[in-house]
Amino acid sequence: MMPSLYEETKSEIKKIIDTEVESICLTTDMWTSRVNDWYMAVTGHFIDKNMVLQSFLLECCALDGGSHTGTVLAQELRRIVQEWNIEEKILIVISDNGSNIKYAIEKCLGWRHFSCYAHTLNLAVQKALNNEDISNIICKIKAIVSYFKKSTIGWDKLKKYQQQAGKDVKRPLQDVSTRWNSTYYMLERFIEIKEEINSSLSNLNPGLSLLTPHEWVVIEKLLLVLRPCEQVTKEMSGQKYVTGSAVIPITTALKSSLVELILNDAEPLPDEVEKVRTDLFGELVSRFSSLENNRIYTVCMFLDPRYKLYFENEATADNTKKNVIGLVTNLIREAEATTGRDNQIDQPTNEGNYERGDIWKHYHKKMQNIRPAGTAYSRAIVEVQRYLDDKVVNINESPLAWWALNKNSYPHLAKLARLKQNALATSVPCERLFSVAGNILSERRTRLGVRKVQQMLFIKENKKII
Fold it and tell me: What whole-number distance in Å separates Cα of residue 169 and Cα of residue 281?
């Protein structure tokens, strides 16, 4: 039954791609299974005719055990997009910062590429946290968390103190080296139950070093620095709403929050935390310095009614506006060429029983070759300016829902939004897919064949949109 359902699902997805997809954003990532099989996943994201962002899995293919060079990955990516006939529809491809996948996408295939925003932010935070003072404190906390996870006596004591304090019982969380967010959650939970942790360790005397009062202050202030990064990561990791348009404004907001932290805080930050704040700000400036040079994301931002011209650089705002006017002009000309309006005037209409006869043949012959210069360009300017003059919508509103309501008022801009707003900011959809794959290829089902795993993932991810 599974091969049959797989082929049926694949056929339905191909119909959707042929009829609905005009522009597609791809995300890709790699994963190693429990049995050391390498997989590469490719997901596609487009906006349908109802202005709803849709996602599907193109393929999760097994890679040979050899070297996964950029050339090898490029061959697999080319094979997948050619099989689905979407090579001419690719808007942008999102991946992590791995040199091999970047080389494959940018050099071998020549596609537009963007490094996963969440991954880049993760690298920036890890770099900022990599100083001796902060690392020592985090290591002490990890040792304490590890103790409570391994010791039944320790956990029972900690649980008892939480119950006596009238709190909900919460376990300490351990961080994962590949995800800085887990470090944030570990520190946040540690602060929530700090009194109970201190009481438990004091009574148990397990030989662990307790945090000093200054170290507790450092952790509390460090959370203030990391909290905006955690919020940004969560917001940018969505795939059911547009994220590409928020890349530039949310980076601006994140940098501003780090500056306001020292302006609004009554007490100065401890030296260790101030160093993290300064280093993190520098990493953000360095790693995201070229965002406003990326035309895909500047156009995405312009076409989001929540942001429009919310650029730090006025020259970038002006250039983006000119770029959008040019894109809209092209859309108008394409529409006119399709309907024949570019090379002929409208035929005369009869009103009532009055009819203009052959005496107007000369008029029609003369006027059909007269086309006002710049008509498409002028109409583009008017439509773009009316859009800019319209009110900016609330930050919590859906830009695609707004376009669905206003597509008749701004027909060409709405079409452009459908072509551009599907650009995602992260490759998180592939990471979520691998979480599903980990549940399928579990410890008790490690003998599942590669082909079966591929089919099960494909069916599970794609059945929900057909």
Answer: 36
